[in-house]
Prior knowledge:
Blueprint: H1 3-17, H2 21-34, H3 47-55, H4 58-62, H5 64-115
Helix pairs in contact: 1-2, 1-5, 3-5
Amino acid sequence: MNVAEGLQRIKEQLEDNGASPATIQLVNGILLRAKTPSGQQATAKSMIELARMLQRTPAATNDIKVYNDLLKLEEGLQANAAAHRDRMASEERQAEAHAQNRSKKYYKEQKEKDKQ
Length: 116
């Protein structure tokens, strides 16, 4: 994921969470650097990685409100990721069960045809 896009999404989520102005200012500052020509090629594995990166900045370590805002964001992102994994696993189990039922039905029909 592009860092600038990820930071923009993080900023929106922080605003939705009612984050302090200092937290938004931190994200805006890093977002400006990420939008520079040299920063546009930066990538991150996930939004969680970006949130953790922000937690390690001096602004976050020196201001407990900023740190707590970022911690709350990370917890929300982790909860969303866990819910997504659960949904995907459930869908996969359903698909496997459906395929198994289809194959049982197919072989049962084949057996009945063979009897005839």
